[in-house]
Amino acid sequence: MKSIKEFVFNILPADKWLKLSQVNNSPVVIAALYAIVYFGAKLHGINIPNGLLSTVSINTVSSVIGNGATSLIKNIVKKGKASPEEIQEILNDINQRTDKNIELSNKLLELNKELLKNEDFEKSISQLSESLHIDINNLKNEVNEKLDEIKEELSIISSPNIQKMEAVLHGDEKSSSGKVEPKFFRAGGPNWVDFEKGYVYERNEVKEAIRKLQKEDIIIIKGKPASGKSVILRNIGYKLIQEGHDVYYIQLKGAADNSEIVKEFKKIQSGIVIVDDAHLDKNTVESFIKAVINNKEVKLIIGSREIDFYKILGPTNETNFSKFFKNAIKVKASDAAEQIIEIYKEKEDKKIPQNIVNQIKNSKHLWIMVWKLRTYEESGNIDKKSFYKTVKTHIKTLLNSVSESTSSKNVESIILILSTFYKYEISVRKSYIEDLEWQEFIDEETLKNLITPLNEISLSEDSEGREYYSMHHSEIARIYFDTFRYYENKDFGHTIRKKIARLAEQYGIDKDTDKFWIETTLLINYIESYPEEFNRFIGQVPGEIQDTLLQNKYFLNLIPEIFKSYQSFDDYGTWHFYENKLIPKIRSNKNLKSKIDNIGPEVFEEKIRKWNNIWDITDLLETLNNIEYDGLPKILKNLKPEALEIKINECENVYAIGKLLKVLKEVEYEGLQKIRKDTFVEKIKEWKDIGKINHLIEHLYWARYKGLQEVFKDIKPKMLKEKIEKWNNADDNKYLELILKELHYPHLEKLKELLEPAGLWLID
Q1: 690-702 helix and 730-742 helix, angle to the nearest 10 degrees
Q2: What whole-number distance in Å separates Cα of residue 4 and Cα of residue 763?
């Protein structure tokens, strides 16, 4: 498709567009004019309200082109004419929007079809046709042809493959009678009908988030496990849908590479995206935030557990995620406990003594509170024995309503294995659960029934087609697991526990002295089957279990396989485990070190060739260097600077690039100085964020990159001045000036000369 300028000026030359703006102050003409200008573009953010196809208004244009250009249009309408500068500013805005690789809304196409039929529009244009010398019919034909071209192109642009929140909220509503009943308690979270019938307490955080959303594009809701974050996110989605918004929903399970989700996210033109469990994949969330910063028509609401970014990034480094996290809305379970109990009493028509209410509302987690309510309903009290009996009964009778042929032993086996993993938010390969190892305990029919219609567990697929089982919440998994523990010497989960005990004996684990014997045994068994999964989950496992693993001989023999199948570090916890536990263990164990040294360098070279994620490459090189891997010099010798240039060019994360430079310096990579300076010059020219530019320059200096002064020569003062003017952060701007002065930027005096008149030179 031609550029928007070519398209607009092919229909009507620029001088006649300008004349048309100047000679008529009709809102209909002005609105129609700019709507037609915009329909040639691939726009983001189009939401045409109902009832506007017959009468085109400035509000319609606002929904099409955004508030910036609309304010200019309103000014034009008020004055009755437009200056060349105003026209150019609007066209500049058009060009910025058309640069985005996004889908054009069908609604906009239909709007413009209606414009061509609109009587007011045709009448006003006809009155101008003689003075403008325009053949209206030809113009309309050309416009229709362009609309058809756009529609054809639109048909091959795929819609974002991300669930709409409305579908999520209706997804668990299944009833044989066709009538959907509200529920106070759903494992997967409340549904549409639960909100509609008042079964969910609407917390203050819901109103606060929606209020903030009017002025802010990115909102974060944080809290401890089972504090109610997910219910709040669903409630926000429910309210926003009722207000007419397009709302998308992403739940990060941390099961695999989420790069495909990022690609789909970037296809969203407009609307609101709700992301839950953000703490499980901080890099993906960082990509979401960046996409929203670059597309003001998309807003983002993030739910996350507490994250210690200071530990992860250190005292000086920040990401967009960490910056927004500082202003997150904090959620506490205790803030809503009493109101939730009141709703339960009302909807379930229950009378609960105040002393029991006080005990229940003091629960640290909302899931525990819910189970205590169920316990009181069934037993009349909430002591430990009654609590675990309620949970046990629930597990044993899960399939009663859907399958008479399935043994409760199958359910117990599945729930015990999955809860062992998912209490640490570890999703488990489908093939592992269905493996021959467990076939005598688990059958396919039971698994299917636990997914649907019971919705007790879930099945997801990663971008490479691998399937994972998980549970809906880590705290539900913990309650289930603790129930099995409570009945450890009873006939509950006894069959599967005997199998796990035999494996424990094989792995040299003493179940009588190791309180984590079930967890440790299943983790070793899983690693043995899927060593490539190790880096994904080890950071989520408690330190006590990590230490137990490192003392286990059977596990130590698996470490070379873990290195052969080495995958990325998904979180800080994994890095911390390697840095503080695994690497010291390898360096102190000559036998283990020798086995890793026997892995050929080509194994790691192949990984580096295939990986595009610079974080992954950096972590691998740093790990190999820290264990003093014998084959590292050969890997570095074969690592071509040209290959790194390509990966740096494709990377938008300045912290990843900075870490790569740091590690290349540490491993004494000779090719560092051969990386062309244009690789870094282009990054600096491309970035608007002065903070990112500062970070890159600092790391080039710390890496002793000899081409830094050559980089400086290509970074012209005029370009830096424009970036500093637009970047609304005085601290970043001042720090850039300090860095440039300290590192002898050759054009410093010229930059100072350009900045001083505007009061933008900040250092003495």
Answers
A1: 30
A2: 43
